[in-house]
Amino acid sequence: MMGEYGLLKHGEDGEGIPAPESQGQEMPAAGNPAAHPESGRGLAESESPAEKAGNRGLASLAPCLHGDTDGLAQRDRQLEERRRQASEKLRNAIAGELAGKSPEDTKTETLLWNALILYQDVPFVTSKNLQFTYSIRGYEMFVSRKDKSITRSTVNLAFGMAMKLLREDQPISGPKKLGTFGASYLYPIFIHIGVIPAEKTKKRKRQKTKEQD
């Protein structure tokens, strides 16, 4: 479950480092393979079958006709249902691992990555109240507030630390508990998709015992 560290630089959330597209780089037109042939080939070669299926699922939810509001609303509902199902599968797999049962069909890390694929472009908020979104290309997560990516291995590192704390019944009260690059962004995402239960985000209060006479 552990891997090498990712590429994000250390820094405070408040720095607001712009995303690559805000630095004057010209972005290729959407849906134009000729504009970015290498990126298309890289994705095809690097993605697993499960991840390809997840990306195809996202593509199939795009509206077919301009101005088709009914179709768009239906696809939004379908996407939301796919997200709900992905989160539920992930939570069930985590519960199984914590109970000593390993998932039969796929690893929990794969379920996590598939859920992250579905939650692209959803707005999240850091613990410092900074809003952000993210996108996934290949095995990298690109956060709107950072100019470098969080690699999948770094996501797995953060997930592994979360699982360790859950096994020890320890609170995961903030991003620092995850101990990886990009933790400020992974932390709210993990809470939203069900990796970190809400009750585990609160610090434990020290209970003072009174001596009995």
Sheet-strand content, in percent, reads 5-15%
Mean pLDDT: 75
Main sheet specs: 3 strands, antiparallel
Question: Helicity, in percent?
Answer: 40-55%
Structural class: mainly alpha
Number of strands: 5
Order of helices and strands: HHHHEEEEEHH
Number of helices: 6
Distance between the termini: 51 Å
The low-confidence parts are 1-45, 206-213
Global outline: globular
Rg over CA atoms: 19 Å
Strand sequence of the main sheet, in spatial order?
Answer: 3-4-5
Question: Can you walk me through this structure?
Answer:
This protein is mostly helical and 213 residues long. The chain has a domain at 47-62 and 72-201. The protein is 42% helix and 7% strand. It has 6 helices and 5 strands. It has a 3-stranded antiparallel β-sheet. A two-stranded antiparallel ribbon has the order 1-2. Helix 2 runs parallel beside helix 4 (108-118) and helix 3 runs antiparallel to helix 4 (108-118). The chain starts with 36 loop residues before the first helix and ends in a 20-residue tail after the last helix.
Quick overview of this protein structure:
With 213 residues, the protein is mainly α.
Topology at a glance:
Layout: H1 37-46, H2 49-60, H3 69-98, H4 108-118, E1 124-125, E2 131-132, E3 134-137, E4 140-143, E5 150-151, H5 152-167, H6 183-193
Antiparallel strand pairs: 1-2, 3-4, 4-5
Helix pairs in contact: 2-4, 3-4
